[in-house]
Amino acid sequence: MDVLAEVMSLLRTRGQLYGRLEFTAPWGFNFPGDKGICLMVSRGSCFLGVDQQALIPLVGGDFVFLPAPHSYSLRSSPEIALRSMQEVISPEAFRQSRVITAGGVVCPPR
Prior knowledge:
The protein is α/β, with parallel strands linked by helices.
């Protein structure tokens, strides 16, 4: 068993939902929380916001495990306004496609 699989088994994770996010700048989204989240940046860069804390820059190769944030956000740059991911795709549609593509459109400021 590899280290990550061992850690996940020790955390007693239940269920799984995986998918791929393909975004082109500019983009920014809020995601619902209260569930454990694993994120891996395969290429490019972005900024992670967790529960109103300071933004964290991420680059290709970074891996993040969030045990159960109340909410989190991902954005192409710190000044980008955020939209709810649920406005972009429903949970049911994501479960079917496992892919979300978005970006290249400036989100209106809140």
